[in-house]
Design the sequence.
């Protein structure tokens, strides 16, 4: 029996709706496997700005530090997107959380549920067998370097930066994971142009000497963006910098049929944070249409990685698999062949998952 | 009758093989339409380093400046890719050429030939009707900002930078093009994180006021990477920064079935440069396997954009269309249904194109 304290941080938009389902699933797991999970909630993003003026209030950060794991929703609001000069922005809360909690490794497993082979825009025969684990570096790069304006505001700049240590620690996590999988690692950079990529490649090359059993391939990010779609089965573990990882994992979501199916784990020095890779999606917020499965799968990752509860984690994945096999879908993963009566909203598909746990 | 001087710059790897076909096609066009094209050649990239120690010898640059247009191949060599500490690199030649010639706008039309609807890894029903024109900024961003090492070589950095003027001039080209097409422009940035993207968005917003007839959408680069695969028909004209454009256009090549079918035009203050978007591809160099159609289509863009020879340009595109309709393929665009005897090498498919001109 595990006793754990879980912080729910729904954030903005559909973050609220999907984490509500994720939390119910955690509750059900606790009951079934006889664990004791306690919960608290905290604010981040636009909702935190509205309530306190701060996208990551000190109280939220404190609660994160004092919990055993965080189930996270999403941040963002169209209001700021269309106002490039806004000084306080929801995303600052997310980035500060990553930095303050030392969440330097973002794991994004990309794997298609059999039933969704037809839901992707990519041909089924290309997707079959695709199973990729991304390691995106999450606390460095152009996200956290100096940025600003100069020449009387006429020029804007952002500095991309990596230290050897930063590359080593994410690289090591990726090599370790490759060892437990198919022993293939692709390191993605733009070393033909960027100095930070050249340092990245140097460090991965050094690490490779320590992992002679892992086959390493170096790719330029433009080539990877192409090969991911052309031949997704070529990849096992992929390791890359913060910005490249942001772009490539969103692209790779199409391999899994929909963004609504993808969870991620951000880990590092302290509390782990688990979240869907989709955003706040204000266009469908409050309509009960959002696919909660990425949040439910985030809960599964949380149980596995932060609590070491493998069986519990697998029970969740299997419940989702069964729900899909029964033919239930949310809008985003339905296709022409889906019986319209099987297309459910956020809560209804959540109930189907809960029934199977 | 046009009198023009064309510089052929094959560069590295398959650049040599494919530009040879591109040049033959230009020759044939000159004969058929009664133009006078004269030619010269110049070195760049690895071959230039080997011959002179310099990836862009002054003589090559001089020749470029004095020609009416440049037909370019590719640069790059695996030797440097695996040696992140190499000081002289083939790509420096390419970047210097872009900067010195003021080639700030890179146009990449992405359009599928009907016959290749099956050659892509993306489903035909998703691709049908896709027709995108990318404007990639080519002389700014993290490609040309300050870069180096600090903290005793322990940290590497690259500065991404945009001035208002740089965004305006590429933005204007994109808006102008949208006006002649379906009047839809997507501007891609990462304004939720990057200061240079916020300035980018500010300038595009200002330009939008001058083009009320063009519908503008702002997307974050991670979302674009996803939507390109999910719903490619949503795009008409896309404008973006140098690095994002590099990644997104390679990804988008899958919409056209293969990279081997995509040409690009780099234009700006002086001589225009026309080149395939594929690279030097040393794995197939010298084997006569490369698809020369991207180089031939680059020649078509050259005639259209630099010389204003629309009919000649269309004759080339139509010849390629007919070659494909006859069932001829190169390896990269063949699929399971292709009769093996119809899969031709570089020169043989070049001959088929020439026959139809
Ligand atoms: C919201 C945004 C700042 C964030 C990022 O770019 O990291 C998001 O896209 C993600 O991938 O978690
Ligand atoms: C070779 C490389 C430097 C170049 C780039 O990144 O611009 C290439 O990928 C391209 O797109 O022309």
Sequence:
């Amino acid at each position: 029996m595990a006793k754990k304290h879980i912080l729910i941080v729904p954030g903005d938009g559909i973050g609220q709706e999907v984490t509500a389902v994720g939390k119910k699933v955690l509750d059900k797991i606790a009951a079934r496997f006889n664990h004791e999970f306690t919960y608290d909630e905290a604010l981040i993003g636009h909702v935190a700005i509205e309530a306190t003026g701060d996208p990551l209030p000190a109280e939220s950060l404190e609660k994160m530090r004092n919990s055993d794991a965080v189930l996270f929703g999403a941040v963002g609001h169209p209001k700021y997107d269309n106002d490039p000069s806004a000084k306080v922005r929801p995303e600052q809360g997310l980035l500060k959380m990553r930095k303050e909690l030392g969440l330097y490794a973002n794991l994004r497993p990309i794997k298609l549920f059999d039933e969704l082979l037809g839901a992707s825009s990519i041909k089924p025969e290309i997707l079959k067998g695709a199973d990729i684990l991304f390691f995106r570096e999450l606390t460095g790069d152009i996200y956290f370097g100096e940025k600003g304006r100069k020449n009387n505001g006429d020029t804007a700049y952002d500095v991309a930066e990596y230290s050897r240590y930063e590359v080593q620690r994410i690289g090591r996590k990726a090599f370790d994971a490759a060892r437990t999988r198919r022993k293939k690692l692709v390191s993605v950079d733009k070393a033909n142009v960027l100095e930070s990529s050249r340092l990245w490649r140097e460090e991965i090359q050094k690490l490779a000497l320590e992992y002679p059993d892992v086959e390493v391939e170096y790719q330029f990010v433009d080539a990877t963006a192409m090969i991911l779609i052309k031949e997704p089965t070529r990849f096992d573990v992929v390791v890359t910098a913060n910005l490249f990882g942001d772009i490539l994992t969103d692209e790779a979501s199409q391999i899994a049929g929909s963004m609504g199916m993808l969870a991620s784990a951000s880990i590092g020095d302290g509390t782990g944070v688990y979240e869907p890779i989709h955003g706040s999606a204000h266009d469908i917020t409050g309509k009960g249409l959002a696919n909660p499965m990425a949040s439910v799968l985030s809960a599964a990752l949380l149980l596995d990685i932060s609590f070491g509860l493998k069986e519990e984690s697998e029970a969740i994945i299997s419940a989702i698999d069964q729900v899909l096999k029964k033919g239930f879908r949310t809008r985003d993963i339905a296709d022409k062949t889906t019986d319209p009566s099987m297309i459910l909203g956020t809560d209804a598909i959540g109930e189907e998952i809960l029934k199977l746990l």
In short: Residues A 192-193, 222; B 75-76, 91, 94, 246 surround 3-isopropylmalic acid (ligand 2) (CB under 6 Å).
